[in-house]
Amino acid sequence: LGLGSNLGNRTGHLTRALNLLEARGFKVTQVSKVYETPPWGLKDQPAFLNQVVEGEFSGDPFTLLNLAMQVEVLCGRERLLHWGPRVLDIDILAVGNLTVNSQRLSIPHPHISQRAFVLVPWAEIAPLYQLPGTDMTIVEMLEKLPQKDRMAISLWTE
């Protein structure tokens, strides 16, 4: 899962999201460090804090999507503007070797290879993971991004 927040207590929202996910059946097995990243898509908004989380979940991907959306709402997420500012965003990045293509859900997440804010933390916890449908690992995707995109991301310290 990819977690992001750019409104309010950003670190608090990420921590609360992890706790709520675990309390509802998502067993966290690895968590990246937190990175501060520039916004992607809509640029005129505050910087994000992002992290990637690996875990185990016994439900299907649509049940996981419902859980992610429920946690977003519990943390105060309102869907007002596509790619706009948000208290919390949880994206399903990948589920093992599974692929899903529906109006409601795409797995792997369709923009992973373009998003340093996902690839940097993901490379930290699973650099050799290979996305289904590609012949590249996470770290190889990260290395293909422009240097300026990678350099725009910094480790978050409070």
Number of strands: 8
Span between termini: 23 Å
Number of helices: 5
Question: How would you characterize the largest beta sheet?
Answer: 6 strands, antiparallel
Could you name the ranges where pLDDT drops below 50 across 5 or more consecutive residues?
Answer: none
Helix content estimate: 25-40%
Strand content: 15-25%
Overall mean pLDDT score? 91
What class would the helix/strand composition place it in?
alpha+beta
Describe this protein's structure.
This protein has 158 residues and is of the alpha+beta class. The protein has helices at 10-23, 61-74, 116-125, 138-144, 147-151, and strands at 2-5, 27-31, 35-37, 48-56, 89-91, 100-101, 106-107, 154-155. The strands form 2 sheets. Strands 1, 2, 3, 4, 5 and 8 form a 6-stranded antiparallel sheet that branches. Helix 3 packs antiparallel against helix 4. It starts with a strand and ends with a strand.
